[in-house]
Amino acid sequence: MADEVTVPLLPCSSIDVIADFYRVLGFRVTYRQTRPNPYLTLRREDLHLHFFGIADFDSENSYGSCLVLVPDVEGLYQAFAVGMRAAYGKVLVSGIPRMTRPRAKKNMDGVTGFSVVDPGGNWIRITAKSPPGATPEPTGRLAVTLQNAVVQGDSRGDHRQAARILDGGLTRPDAGDDPAVLVQALAYRAETAMTLADPDTARESLTRIERVELTADVRQQIAAVLDTVAELADSLP
Protein backbone atom coordinates (compact mmCIF):
# COMPACT_ATOMS: atom_id res chain seq x y z
CA MET A 1 0.00 0.00 0.00
CA ALA A 2 1.26 3.50 -0.83
CA ASP A 3 0.40 7.10 0.08
CA GLU A 4 0.05 6.43 3.80
CA VAL A 5 0.03 9.49 6.05
CA THR A 6 1.18 9.57 9.66
CA VAL A 7 0.13 12.47 11.87
CA PRO A 8 1.71 12.94 15.32
CA LEU A 9 -0.50 13.50 18.38
CA LEU A 10 1.33 15.68 20.88
CA PRO A 11 0.50 16.71 24.47
CA CYS A 12 0.06 20.21 25.84
CA SER A 13 -1.51 22.04 28.76
CA SER A 14 -3.47 24.53 26.64
CA ILE A 15 -4.63 24.04 23.08
CA ASP A 16 -5.26 27.79 22.82
CA VAL A 17 -1.64 28.65 23.65
CA ILE A 18 -0.51 26.03 21.15
CA ALA A 19 -2.80 27.47 18.46
CA ASP A 20 -1.51 31.01 19.02
CA PHE A 21 2.10 29.88 18.76
CA TYR A 22 1.69 27.84 15.60
CA ARG A 23 -0.27 30.62 13.90
CA VAL A 24 2.92 32.66 14.27
CA LEU A 25 4.69 29.95 12.25
CA GLY A 26 2.08 30.06 9.49
CA PHE A 27 -0.20 27.20 10.57
CA ARG A 28 -3.98 27.41 10.59
CA VAL A 29 -6.43 25.67 12.88
CA THR A 30 -8.43 23.02 11.02
CA TYR A 31 -10.30 21.60 14.03
CA ARG A 32 -10.74 22.52 17.67
CA GLN A 33 -12.77 20.96 20.49
CA THR A 34 -12.84 21.49 24.24
CA ARG A 35 -15.21 18.66 25.26
CA PRO A 36 -15.10 15.89 26.18
CA ASN A 37 -11.34 16.34 25.81
CA PRO A 38 -9.33 19.30 24.48
CA TYR A 39 -8.15 18.53 20.97
CA LEU A 40 -6.60 20.69 18.23
CA THR A 41 -5.51 20.05 14.67
CA LEU A 42 -3.19 22.35 12.73
CA ARG A 43 -2.01 22.49 9.15
CA ARG A 44 0.65 24.35 7.19
CA GLU A 45 0.55 23.21 3.56
CA ASP A 46 1.23 19.44 3.85
CA LEU A 47 2.50 19.62 7.43
CA HIS A 48 -0.12 18.36 9.91
CA LEU A 49 0.15 18.42 13.72
CA HIS A 50 -2.48 17.33 16.24
CA PHE A 51 -2.51 18.17 19.96
CA PHE A 52 -4.43 16.93 22.97
CA GLY A 53 -4.74 18.86 26.21
CA ILE A 54 -3.81 17.44 29.62
CA ALA A 55 -4.68 19.28 32.82
CA ASP A 56 -1.58 20.37 34.78
CA PHE A 57 0.73 19.14 32.01
CA ASP A 58 4.36 20.17 32.64
CA SER A 59 5.99 21.28 29.40
CA GLU A 60 9.44 21.32 31.03
CA ASN A 61 9.29 17.53 31.40
CA SER A 62 7.63 16.74 28.07
CA TYR A 63 8.90 13.84 26.00
CA GLY A 64 6.74 14.79 23.01
CA SER A 65 8.65 14.76 19.73
CA CYS A 66 8.22 14.13 16.05
CA LEU A 67 10.36 14.14 12.92
CA VAL A 68 9.32 16.23 9.91
CA LEU A 69 11.09 15.58 6.60
CA VAL A 70 11.11 18.57 4.28
CA PRO A 71 12.72 19.34 0.90
CA ASP A 72 13.93 22.82 1.94
CA VAL A 73 15.12 23.09 5.54
CA GLU A 74 16.55 26.59 5.19
CA GLY A 75 13.44 27.91 3.47
CA LEU A 76 11.13 26.62 6.22
CA TYR A 77 13.44 27.95 8.92
CA GLN A 78 13.42 31.40 7.34
CA ALA A 79 9.62 31.34 7.09
CA PHE A 80 9.32 30.42 10.78
CA ALA A 81 11.92 33.07 11.68
CA VAL A 82 9.98 35.77 9.83
CA GLY A 83 6.86 34.85 11.78
CA MET A 84 8.69 34.90 15.10
CA ARG A 85 10.28 38.26 14.41
CA ALA A 86 6.91 39.73 13.46
CA ALA A 87 5.23 38.38 16.60
CA TYR A 88 8.01 38.59 19.19
CA GLY A 89 10.54 40.98 17.70
CA LYS A 90 13.18 38.23 17.50
CA VAL A 91 13.77 34.55 16.89
CA LEU A 92 13.22 32.77 20.20
CA VAL A 93 16.40 30.87 21.09
CA SER A 94 15.89 30.25 24.80
CA GLY A 95 13.15 29.05 27.10
CA ILE A 96 9.91 27.47 25.93
CA PRO A 97 8.97 28.01 23.14
CA ARG A 98 12.18 28.36 21.11
CA MET A 99 13.80 27.39 17.81
CA THR A 100 17.30 26.17 17.00
CA ARG A 101 19.24 27.23 13.90
CA PRO A 102 19.76 24.80 10.97
CA ARG A 103 22.91 22.77 11.50
CA ALA A 104 24.36 19.56 10.08
CA LYS A 105 23.86 16.72 12.57
CA LYS A 106 26.66 14.24 13.15
CA ASN A 107 24.17 11.70 14.50
CA MET A 108 22.03 12.12 11.35
CA ASP A 109 24.86 11.37 8.89
CA GLY A 110 25.47 15.05 8.29
CA VAL A 111 21.88 15.84 7.30
CA THR A 112 20.91 19.43 8.12
CA GLY A 113 18.01 20.20 10.41
CA PHE A 114 16.60 22.42 13.12
CA SER A 115 14.08 22.03 15.92
CA VAL A 116 11.07 23.95 17.14
CA VAL A 117 10.30 23.47 20.82
CA ASP A 118 6.66 24.51 21.19
CA PRO A 119 4.79 25.76 24.31
CA GLY A 120 3.98 22.14 25.18
CA GLY A 121 7.69 21.28 25.29
CA ASN A 122 7.30 19.15 22.15
CA TRP A 123 10.34 18.92 19.87
CA ILE A 124 9.34 19.30 16.21
CA ARG A 125 12.51 18.11 14.49
CA ILE A 126 12.72 19.52 10.96
CA THR A 127 15.12 17.48 8.84
CA ALA A 128 16.15 17.50 5.19
CA LYS A 129 14.22 14.88 3.23
CA SER A 130 17.18 13.98 1.02
CA PRO A 131 20.65 13.17 2.36
CA PRO A 132 23.34 15.66 1.33
CA GLY A 133 25.41 13.02 -0.47
CA ALA A 134 29.04 12.62 0.40
CA THR A 135 29.59 14.91 3.36
CA PRO A 136 33.24 15.54 4.13
CA GLU A 137 34.36 14.75 7.65
CA PRO A 138 35.05 17.89 9.69
CA THR A 139 38.68 18.86 9.86
CA GLY A 140 40.20 20.51 12.89
CA ARG A 141 39.70 19.87 16.57
CA LEU A 142 37.17 22.63 17.07
CA ALA A 143 35.00 21.48 14.15
CA VAL A 144 34.72 18.03 15.74
CA THR A 145 34.00 19.64 19.12
CA LEU A 146 31.20 21.70 17.60
CA GLN A 147 29.63 18.63 15.98
CA ASN A 148 29.67 16.78 19.31
CA ALA A 149 28.10 19.76 21.07
CA VAL A 150 25.32 19.99 18.47
CA VAL A 151 24.43 16.33 19.08
CA GLN A 152 24.02 17.02 22.79
CA GLY A 153 22.26 20.38 22.54
CA ASP A 154 20.15 20.24 19.38
CA SER A 155 19.39 16.52 19.23
CA ARG A 156 19.25 15.51 22.89
CA GLY A 157 18.33 18.79 24.50
CA ASP A 158 21.21 18.53 26.97
CA HIS A 159 22.39 22.13 26.80
CA ARG A 160 24.61 21.87 29.87
CA GLN A 161 26.60 19.06 28.30
CA ALA A 162 26.79 20.98 25.02
CA ALA A 163 28.15 23.97 26.96
CA ARG A 164 30.75 21.81 28.70
CA ILE A 165 31.92 20.35 25.39
CA LEU A 166 32.19 23.79 23.80
CA ASP A 167 33.98 25.27 26.79
CA GLY A 168 36.56 22.50 26.60
CA GLY A 169 37.21 23.21 22.93
CA LEU A 170 37.12 26.99 23.13
CA THR A 171 39.65 27.20 25.97
CA ARG A 172 42.31 25.47 23.86
CA PRO A 173 42.91 27.70 20.82
CA ASP A 174 44.43 25.96 17.83
CA ALA A 175 46.22 27.88 15.09
CA GLY A 176 44.75 25.41 12.59
CA ASP A 177 41.13 26.18 13.47
CA ASP A 178 39.08 27.74 10.70
CA PRO A 179 37.88 31.26 11.67
CA ALA A 180 34.42 30.40 10.28
CA VAL A 181 34.23 27.37 12.58
CA LEU A 182 35.42 29.46 15.52
CA VAL A 183 32.61 31.95 14.95
CA GLN A 184 30.06 29.14 14.63
CA ALA A 185 31.30 27.54 17.86
CA LEU A 186 31.19 30.84 19.75
CA ALA A 187 27.74 31.61 18.36
CA TYR A 188 26.47 28.22 19.46
CA ARG A 189 28.03 28.76 22.89
CA ALA A 190 26.13 32.05 23.12
CA GLU A 191 22.91 30.25 22.14
CA THR A 192 23.40 27.58 24.80
CA ALA A 193 24.16 30.27 27.37
CA MET A 194 20.92 32.05 26.53
CA THR A 195 19.03 28.77 26.84
CA LEU A 196 20.64 28.21 30.24
CA ALA A 197 19.77 31.77 31.39
CA ASP A 198 23.45 32.74 31.52
CA PRO A 199 23.63 36.14 29.77
CA ASP A 200 27.15 36.87 31.02
CA THR A 201 28.62 33.88 29.17
CA ALA A 202 26.52 34.72 26.10
CA ARG A 203 27.89 38.28 26.15
CA GLU A 204 31.47 37.02 26.57
CA SER A 205 31.08 34.64 23.60
CA LEU A 206 29.66 37.36 21.38
CA THR A 207 32.48 39.71 22.37
CA ARG A 208 35.01 37.06 21.35
CA ILE A 209 33.34 36.83 17.94
CA GLU A 210 33.97 40.55 17.41
CA ARG A 211 37.70 39.89 17.77
CA VAL A 212 37.83 37.15 15.12
CA GLU A 213 39.29 38.40 11.85
CA LEU A 214 37.10 37.39 8.91
CA THR A 215 37.61 37.94 5.21
CA ALA A 216 34.74 39.13 3.02
CA ASP A 217 34.41 35.62 1.57
CA VAL A 218 34.14 34.05 5.01
CA ARG A 219 31.58 36.63 6.09
CA GLN A 220 29.47 35.72 3.08
CA GLN A 221 29.90 32.01 3.83
CA ILE A 222 28.59 32.36 7.39
CA ALA A 223 26.17 35.24 6.79
CA ALA A 224 23.29 33.35 8.45
CA VAL A 225 25.42 32.74 11.55
CA LEU A 226 26.37 36.42 11.74
CA ASP A 227 22.68 37.34 11.48
CA THR A 228 22.04 35.06 14.46
CA VAL A 229 24.91 36.68 16.34
CA ALA A 230 23.37 40.14 15.81
CA GLU A 231 19.99 38.88 16.96
CA LEU A 232 21.48 37.31 20.08
CA ALA A 233 23.27 40.54 20.91
CA ASP A 234 20.01 42.46 20.63
CA SER A 235 18.30 39.94 22.93
CA LEU A 236 20.77 40.33 25.78
CA PRO A 237 19.46 42.16 28.85
The appropriate CATH architecture of the largest domain is Roll
Overall domain count: 2
> What is the CA-CA span between the terminal residues?
55 Å
**Remind me, CATH topology of the largest domain?**
2,3-Dihydroxybiphenyl 1,2-Dioxygenase, domain 1
Question: Main attributes?
Answer:
237 residues, alpha+beta, 2,3-Dihydroxybiphenyl 1,2-Dioxygenase, domain 1, Serine Threonine Protein Phosphatase 5, Tetratricopeptide repeat, four-stranded mixed β-sheet, 43% helix
How would you describe the overall organization of this protein?
- This protein has 237 residues and is α+β, with helices and mostly antiparallel strands.
- It folds into 2 domains: 9-117, 2,3-Dihydroxybiphenyl 1,2-Dioxygenase, domain 1 (Roll), CATH 3.10.180.10; 136-235, Alpha Horseshoe (Serine Threonine Protein Phosphatase 5, Tetratricopeptide repeat).
- The chain has 8 helices and 9 strands.
- It has helices at residues 15-24, 73-88, 141-155, 159-170, 179-195, 199-210, 216-221, 223-235, and strands spanning 9-12, 28-33, 39-44, 47-53, 65-70, 98-99, 103-104, 112-117, 123-128.
- Strands 5, 6, 7, 8 and 9 form a 5-stranded mixed sheet that branches.
- A hairpin with a 7-residue loop joins strand 7 (103-104) and strand 8 (112-117).
- Helix 3 (141-155) packs parallel to helix 5 and helix 5 (179-195) packs parallel to helix 8.
- It is globular and about 60 Å long.
- The mean pLDDT is 87.
